[in-house]
């Protein structure tokens, strides 16, 4: 009796110790993650000269909110925002549409050459972006699409990756459901719209999120195909802001925060979806 | 007679036209795939044998681009590369790739730490995931400021503990490690950690219970249960990281160093960008892109051949 109690105590003591170490390690790590962000915020609110004081001030005195207005007015950030939102949303819906249609054909329909064609899709997934980027750039230059939304959106609408991801998911939908719909007189289009798509919401959400994030952060392509300020997206806009204010740290940090905050807010309100929902991509080797 | 005719037409129906419905589904994606992937790939291969600046007529040069890129010539002091920049930038790219295992180990450690149901775990996961959702350009600007030799946070901190910090981004020696360090920070709790977490949660509980009965310690459980169970995920992350690694490093270098100092942070992808869009050497840029493709392809093949064998699918 006594010994059992003792061992229970020891076990509890051990787990309490383990818990403390656990909090300590993760806590220290969390500080490493957060300090740069605080430093960024602090810098963004300083007077230009206060950046060069030693030791550095953590709480700026005076707090200069004007930096944000100055940064916002220096380049058309509002326009960059609208561009990024428009391009990312168009690309997300476009990719979902073309990929799901093709994935349905690959997963559920039979036609000559299907498997060969699918293999070709798979093979191109290893192709570095740099290989196709040069000819596509030349092509768009020839048809006069450079510095247009078409150039920013259309080449990204037809991904082998999205087709592959959705095809894998569609394959897992039980064939019985489809058969039942067919007996009820459903056409192929009907099955796609009323059976396959509603059942694939998690996969569509995953692909949609990935496409949106990828499009939102895309850097090299928008850099290549845009010239004018009116067509720049947020990342490119911020890069050209840096070109204008190379070492104005207060303004640079304010501009960076202007660019960062909306995605951060979206993330913090949906963090369950991000941090826990990504399991959906289901990497089972 | 009649019957045979019927089967005949039925067989015919199995041909191309009977499947127009399927092709119709495929069409939107296929057209784009041909126009923006297959076509450009073939065109790019053709371009790699030319000398072309878009404005003047294209010149076919045979293997000259590849000879310049990969070849060597005899000099008074020995063999020298025809394009020494390419080899330097390839080395830079590979230097960054050495950090892939480090980053993977750290992410796995984070996943192990976060695979607990303690209070506050969601807050921790959120904090570590923050860099993944932040604008990457903004983070590069932030780190450029952190690395500022005179007033940046890092050297200020180092000065406090009595160390004179290096020049970081303006030093040929420290610029690459500095950018790699930023990558480690950003990837600590990112997508890879979440993939690991998903894999860890998929390991059957009974295995651990059985090990507890046998009196296995923490390390033994990790070594003989956890690790073998998640090898498919480890392998997947490694393959994807290698594919990404060969093509990486453009954005951070573009923002933080402009590829310098003296090319110390220029990667292959950056070299392609410079050749194609700064110097308009479309032919030479295409040939570098194809060498990159061959590298990625070979690495992936080797990974599958030698790594894939060790993967245990449980």
Key structural traits:
heterodimer, A: 285 residues, mainly alpha, MetI-like fold, 73% helix, flat, B: 314 residues, 2 domains, two-stranded antiparallel sheet, two-stranded antiparallel ribbon, 68% helix, disordered N terminus
Summarize the structure.
Chain A is mostly helical and 285 residues long. Chain A contains 14 helices and no strands. Chain B has 314 residues and is mainly alpha-helical.
Secondary-structure map:
The complex is a heterodimer of chains A (285) and B (314).
Chain A: H1 2-44, H2 66-74, H3 77-108, H4 114-124, H5 129-142, H6 149-153, H7 160-171, H8 175-183, H9 188-199, H10 201-217, H11 220-225, H12 234-244, H13 249-269, H14 271-277
Helix pairs in contact in A: 1-13, 2-13, 3-7, 3-10, 4-7, 8-9, 12-13
Chain B: H1 2-13, H2 20-47, E1 50-51, E2 59-60, H3 64-70, E3 72-75, E4 78-81, H4 84-97, H5 99-114, H6 121-133, H7 136-146, H8 153-160, H9 175-187, H10 191-201, H11 205-213, H12 218-246, H13 250-256, H14 268-278, H15 282-307
Helix pairs in contact in B: 4-12, 5-9, 5-10, 7-13, 10-12, 12-15, 14-15
State the assembly state of the protein chains. heterodimer
How would you spell out the order of helices and strands of chain A? HHHHHHHHHHHHHH
What radius of gyration of chain A results from the CA coordinates? 26 Å
**Tally of discrete structural domains of chain B:** 2
Largest sheet composition of chain A:
none
Helix run count of chain A: 14
Distance between the termini of chain A: 48 Å
Q: Strand content of the residues of chain B, in percent?
A: under 5%
Biggest sheet statistics of chain B: 2 strands, antiparallel
Taking all Cα atoms into account, the compactness measure Rg of chain B is 26 Å
The helix count of chain B comes to 15
Helix share, percent of chain A: over 70%
Task: Supply the CATH class of the largest domain in chain A.
Answer: Mainly Alpha
